[in-house]
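In response to reviewer comment 3 from the previous cycle, which asked for concrete evidence that the modeling workflow produces usable outputs, we include below a single protein chain processed end to end. The sequence was submitted unchanged, and the resulting structure tokens are shown without manual editing.
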Amino acid sequence: METGGSSESPAEPKKGRSRAPKKAAESLLKQKSPAEFFAENKNIAGFDNPGKSLYTTVRELVENSLDSAESISELPVVEITIEEIGKSKFNSMIGLIDRERVDAALYDDYETAKERERRLAKEARAQEIQAKNAASGKKVKEQSAGKGMKGRGEGSFYRVTCKDNGKGMPHDDIPNMFGRGVLLILVLKYLASGPGVLSGTKYGLKQTRGKFGLGAKMALIWSKMSTGLPIEISSSMKGQTYMTFCRLDIDIHRNVPHVHVHEKRKNDNKWHGAEIQVVIEGNWTTYRSKILHYMRQMAVITPYAQFLFRFISETSDKNVTIKFARRTEVMPPVPLETKHHPSSVDILLIKRLIAETSKQNLLQFLQHEFVNIGKSHAERLIGEMGSEFSAKMPVKSLTDQQIVRIHQLFRQAKFDDPTGDCLSPAGEYNLRLGIIKELHPDMVATYSGSAQVFEGHPFIVEAGVSVGGKDVKQGLNIFRFANRIPLLFEQGADVVTRTALKRINWGTYKINQTQDKIGVFVSIVSTKIPFKGTGKEYIGDDIKEIATAVKSAIQQCCNQLKSKIIKKLQAREQQERKRNIGRYIPDASAAIYDVLQAMTQLHASKKRRYNEEDTDLVSKVASRSITTATLKEKLSEHVARVDYEMALEYATQSGVSEEPREDVYIQALEPAAADGKKFLDFHSPAFVFRLVC
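The workflow returned the following structure tokens.
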């Protein structure tokens, strides 16, 4: 008995201990907020490092401002300011007191005496080489900071301010718009990819500017992570007598706003729009060129907007101020919302549309929730689904198997392609003005294609090709736009880059790919841009419809340029021909004049008899009424006349393939003819005969 009891007693606690950890492990499961998800995966939203975070913040704020102004058909005026904040000033902003270092070797930028001596010697050698190169006229590269000084240092924090004249935001909605704007379902949509996936409309599709739909929310999250400082929002809607001021940050774990100040203030200037101010960690030095390049490309694709960009440095010699002036007041139309095309939906989307639809039966659901499905077409589709489907059956009663059957039929059936009416391209006129305004090219050609379709989504490709220009490098300079925003990263794998480099034979169009300054501009707009990569920085080359459309658009521009280039080459050849012939005019005129002078001397000495014309010519030479300059002028006129006749003959021979000229009529000065005609045909043989006679 005792032995049995002693053997059973340890078994029971062991059994209990083995169960406890399992329950504890199950209880460790927790749900992350969407803000926490993006905070942990900030690279997918373009916040890979401090430099790119500064660039992405500027980009998101500028694009929000443009969308806000365009939504009320207001010509955008956007002011963006980046103010450098030194470490001491930043510490005072967050309430820290600067203190001396106690253990210098503890810091990342610490260097020993030998390391410092080695660094200074290396910098001295570099400066000596730089001075020699400068003296010899060689191009000098700026030397980067030494490896020993690798700490973060001063000026790694920046106050970014963006002000616009847009729609503004309602007073009560501002905290939730910035602090609670990301929902969990939107994270799932992001994983499914798409343009502006986090800002899609509820019942359909819409062309949206941007890649993630996060806007200033991600800048707020990055500000919370890097500096801990709140953002400040000033906003006023059109017609409001007050202005809203709000200072807030975000509780990342709970995905809720933490409001510090939310109040109404006077709006004496009757300003409308929004001004957002955020303090973040960044790196202006490494991403300066990218930010300025972005602003320049944005000025190209939106010439109807006015941008004022300022960078304010703690040292005034590094300040930057650039104004991108408005060139036109013609704005593209606001993109319209459209319903889903049947061939572009998946099973989850069909289920969501069923849950959100207000239609009662299947026939109404198919007819009103999708494009290009009329009543008769919907009835034919229902008849094809099977006997368990009927037009009057409640759409909410569809089972999972029946929804899968609908999806299969959508994938297999034939539907008309969606139109491009819902899209809002920049427009050929705006694209041309933007290129001329920013690049000042010698010649430019633009083309806007018709709407095409891939995977049930309409898209339009616009293109421009320029030759020459200001601040343009030799070779191909490729500018890519998606839904009217510039794409600056991962250019090599993009469909536009690959098409321009590998599929266009530039020599066919009289363009030298390596020596000419060529600008290639391609803008793609669609309800779904097929971005690639987590950062959504380029458009893949694997979609045949888009690749074909891009190639065709660039070729159309090149064909326009070819005729201009040929005319320019012909004019250059004509000038060269005149120059070659005119090169001999001084020698020929001098030789002729010497002969004439010899004739005058011979006439004076021997009193020879000449005919009347010779005597007249000799007397003019003797009286200096004919000089070498006279002969040069006459010979130049003769060369110009001969050159014109040669050019006219060439044009006559090569002009057979030209388009017929339009009829031109001018009013007759004489009384009406017998036939009653009051106008003469400018090209008619009768008019030409009368003109010659």
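Residues 342-412 form a domain with the Helicase, Ruva Protein; domain 3 fold (CATH 1.10.8.50). We consider this sufficient to address the reviewer's concern, and the full set will be provided in the supplementary archive.
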